[in-house]
Amino acid sequence: MLKHKDLVKLGEQLGIDKLGVARAEAIRDHDLTAWLNKGYHGQMGYMENNREKRQDPTVLMTGAQSVISAFINYHQKEAQPDLDGRISRYARSIDYHVTVKDLLHKLAAKLLEPEVTGMSRKERAKVYRVFVDSAPVMEKHWAIQAGIGWQGKHTNIITTDLGSWGFLGEIITTVAFDEYDTPVADHCGTCTACIDACPTNAIIKPYELDGSRCISYATIELDANEKIPSDIREHMEEWFFGCDICQDVCPWNRSAPASQADAFQPVAGFADGECPDFHQMDEERFNKDFGQTPLERPGLAGLRRNQLKRD
Ligand code: B12
Ligand code: SF4
Ligand code: SF4
To answer: What is the pTM of this model?
Structure first.
């Protein structure tokens, strides 16, 4: 059995901003099917796959007992006027799928150290798995259950002390903990700032997002060969990779602290604070400067589709 207090201590040592743990149980109160039936996933076909695994960590990993949820702050305090309003903050550093995964593997290795658990390294590798974003895991659900934060009306997880500028990641393990966390209360109250500010009306109603209307979806997930629908394009303002509007207006982000971690500082390609012109860039330069960032997902072709040509 693992100790909750050891998890907290190790998290602090590794600089993980928030950690909590929930019992690995099937998700009963979450209507993923209704969300899919409304077509809110658009072309994100992966959301339809592995539904059983997505809704039950014990199907994803046989014998799973605990889901450790981590929140990693990526907030950059410095305003970058040429990038803000165009490229989302989360996308300016090395891809979080790599950095957050590395951090969680380090945490798991320490937590399950042979000296603590009596397991050999080989055995240890069999009792946990690390997930960040791309696997069939309902990450926001687990962050709520693990007491990290609540789901805001814009549908992202908000913490009382760090706001919502954070990535989520999980360690699912077959080992039990002596104590589990409990969900925190919703602190949105009567506020509707995110719903009012969303330029494409993607937030249909509180806590319900039509992903296919979100600028983030149109600029990152929509196939690079497809035209962005005009009713979204005309409201995109200058955004061409992701969108931060609903989080920018959230009162819980007003005093969110900046990340001190080197891993979440802008890559060299963004170091001068200027917004790159992807129409003027060749593949070689793109791969060198931005190949390790989330911009790699739509690639140069997608970014050229998204970014309006300069006069
Ligand atoms: C698909 C996806 C998207 C889609 C759809 C977004 C969405 N809200 O589902 C698109 C491409 C639009 C997207 C955009 C973004 N994403 Co995204 N995305 C995901 C992904 C892969 C799955 C999310 C999911 O399961 N959606 C399915 C639906 C069913 O879930 P849901 O929104 O939670 O909806 C349910 C609840 O609202 C609930 N519900 C209904 N009524 C009520 C009432 C109450 C009171 C409550 C609490 C709940 C509730 O029922 C709904 C179903 O109807 C996760 C990673 C993962 N594996 O979990 C990242 C993830 C959610 N994304 C993330 C990020 C950072 C973003 C962006 C901020 C990126 C950007 N800057 O452009 C935007 C934010 C847009 C927004 N307002 O949500 C982070 C969020 C971190 C955080 N702090 O919460 C995640 C966790 C990735 C990560 N590992 O860090 N994303
Ligand atoms: S990310 Fe932008 S487009 Fe998507 S819901 Fe938030 S404000 Fe609307
Ligand atoms: S802007 Fe207001 S309603 Fe939206 S998530 Fe933040 S506190 Fe909640």
So the answer is: 0.97
